[in-house]
Amino acid sequence: MKYYVKKNWKMIALTTSFGLLCEGIYVILQLIMMQSFDAAIHLDFRKFLLWTAVEVGGYMLYLTLAAVEGVLEARTIRSMNNQVRHDLYLSLLDKTHAVYHSQDTGEYISWLTTNVKQIEHLAWAPIFSCVQQAGLIVWCILALISLHWLMLVAGLVSAAVMLVVPKLFQKRMERLGEACAAAEAEGVSKLKDLLSGFDVLRSFGHADRFLNQGDAVSDQMEEPNCRRSGTQSSLSCFTGFFSVSLQIFQQVVTVMLAFQGKIILGAMVSASNLTAGIVNGLRTIANHRMSLASAKPYFKNITVHTDDAQAVTDTGLEQVNSAITVENLSFQYGEKPILQDLSLQFRKGGKYALTGPSGCGKSTLLKLLLGWLPDYGGTIRFDGKDAKDFTPEQFQQQMSYIEQNVFLFNSTIRDNITLGETFTDAQMEKALRDSALIGDLAAMPDGLDTAVGEEGGSLSGGQKQRVAIARALIHDRSILLVDEGTSALDQKNADIVEKSLLANPELTLILVSHHLTPERKEQFTRVYDLQPAVVQPLAG
C-alpha cells in the first residue's frame, strides 16, 4: 500500500490540496455564519445581509473546488488501480509454470477484479478521506482557538479519546479482511467450475444442483463480508457513543463561555459544527483506519512491483548449433514416477518422434525441455550447457510449442498468428501455406481478419490447430515441439503440415504421437518409443 502512495505522491498531494482547501473554506464559512447569526441576534439587518452574501459566495467557491477535487481523486484512483493490476501481471509472470498452474484461473481473475475493487474501497478512497478529515480537524481547532482556549482544550480531549478507541479493534478488522479475501477467491473459483459445467448439469436434468451449489457459493462469499460489515457497523456505533458524548461536552463549554460574554452569542450556533468537525473527523479517521487494516490482505498477492522488475537484456542461451542431450532423466508427479533414467539426443535439424502408451511421459518430456518443470533428476544440456543454468524464457526464445488443446485469443486469426508483431506478406503467405490454413481462409469472408470468438469457438478443432501451427512457423523458432498438434486435422491436411515441417532442414522437430505407421516412421531421423516408468514394489 505504501509503495503506491509513494509512487503517486504528486497526484495525491495535488488532489488532497484541493480537499484541504475545501475543508478550510468550510470552516471559514462556519465563522462567517457566526457573524451572520450574531448580526441577526442584534437586529443589524444590513450587517446580516452582508455576511449572508459573503456566505453564499463562499459556498459557491467551496462547491467548485470540491468538484475539481472529485475529478482529480477519480483520476488518481484509476491510475493506482491500473498500477496494482500491472504489478499483479508482473507477479504472475514471475511464477514458474508449475506454480502458475497450481491455482485456478478464476482465482487470478478474482485478484484482478474483486481484489482491486476492494483495494479501491478499503484503501484508496479512505486515504483521501483521512487526509481531508485531518485537514478539517486542524482547521476546526484553529477556528476554536480563535474563539477561546477552553474550546481548544475540549477539542483536544475529544481528539485523545477518538484516537485511542480504534486501536482496540485494528487486529480484529485485519483478520476479518483476510477472511473476506480468502472467501471471495475461493468463491470465484467455485463459480467458474459451476458455470463451466452448466451444460452437463442441465443436460442430465440437474438444474436443482446448479441452483443449490450456486446459492451455497453465494452465501459462502457473502458470510465473511457480512461479518466484517456487521462488526464494522457495531464498532462505528461504539465509537459514535463517544462522539456524541464529546459533542455534548463541547456544547456545554460553548454555552458557558457565551453566557459569560467571552465569545459572541452567534458562536453558540456554529461552534457545535466546529466541534462536530473535530469529533466526526476523528470518528471517520478511526473507521478508515479499520478499513485500511482490512485492506492489507488484498496486497499480499503482489510480489513484484514495476520499479523492481528488470527486463532480461542478455539471452544467455545461444542458438542450438549441435544438439539437445538428455542424460539419465527422471521425473515424478508427487509420488508417481513418470520418467526414469531416460537418455536420448536431439541433433540440430533432426526430426524426432516420441511414441508410447498414455502416461509414459511424452508430454512431460516436452515440458521438461521447455523448462516448465524444473524439479527433475539427471541432466538436460543444450550444446553441452546445463539447462538449469537458464530460465524458461531463455529457452522459449528459440522454441515453439504446439499442444493438442490449442488456445486462441478472442480476436482475429491474424492477431492470433502474429501476436501483435509485424511480418511481411511473404512471411505470412509461407506460414499460411505450410500450415495448410490458406484453404480455410479462402472460404472466410473476412480472411485473416475473421474473428475467432472466445477461446476460438467459431473455428473447428482442425482450424484452431492450423492457426497454432501458422503461429509457430511465422515466429521462426529453430526448435518446434508438437504435442499431438495435428490430431484434429484430416489426413490430407495433416500430411501437408507434416511434410512442410519435415522438409525444413533448419528446423529441429520433436513430435509426440500415439500412432505412427511404418511409412511415417521412416520420415523421421529417429523414433523414440517411451515406456511407462516401473513402480518398485514396497519392501515387505
Can you put this structure into words, describing what you see?
By secondary structure, the protein is an alpha/beta fold. It has 18 helices and nine strands. The chain has helices at 2-7, 9-41, 45-93, 97-100, 105-147, 149-164, 170-196, 198-203, 207-259, 267-295, 362-369, 392-395, 413-418, 425-434, 438-442, 461-474, 491-503, 518-521, and strands at 323-333, 336-347, 351-355, 377-382, 385-386, 399-402, 479-483, 508-512, 526-529. Strands 6-7-8-3-9 form a five-stranded parallel beta sheet, sandwiched between helices. Helix 2 runs antiparallel to helix 3 and helix 14 packs across helix 16 (461-474). The longest helix has 53 residues, at 207-259. It is elongated, with a radius of gyration of 34 Å. The two termini are 57 Å apart. Mean pLDDT is 82; it is low at 311-315 and 535-540.
In short:
This protein has 540 residues and is of the alpha/beta class. The protein has helices at residues 2-7, 9-41, 45-93, 97-100, 105-147, 149-164, 170-196, 198-203, 207-259, 267-295, 362-369, 392-395, 413-418, 425-434, 438-442, 461-474, 491-503, 518-521; strands at residues 323-333, 336-347, 351-355, 377-382, 385-386, 399-402, 479-483, 508-512, 526-529.
How many strands appear in the DSSP assignment? 9
Oligomer: single chain
The DSSP helix count reads 18
Separation of termini?
Answer: 57 Å
Strand content: 5-15%
Task: Note the main attributes of this structure.
single chain, 61% helix, 540 residues, alpha/beta, 18 helices
List the helices and strands and how they pair.
Blueprint: H1 2-7, H2 9-41, H3 45-93, H4 97-100, H5 105-147, H6 149-164, H7 170-196, H8 198-203, H9 207-259, H10 267-295, E1 323-333, E2 336-347, E3 351-355, H11 362-369, E4 377-382, E5 385-386, H12 392-395, E6 399-402, H13 413-418, H14 425-434, H15 438-442, H16 461-474, E7 479-483, H17 491-503, E8 508-512, H18 518-521, E9 526-529
Helix pairs in contact: 2-3, 2-5, 2-10, 3-5, 5-6, 5-7, 5-10, 6-9, 6-10, 7-9, 7-10, 9-10, 14-16
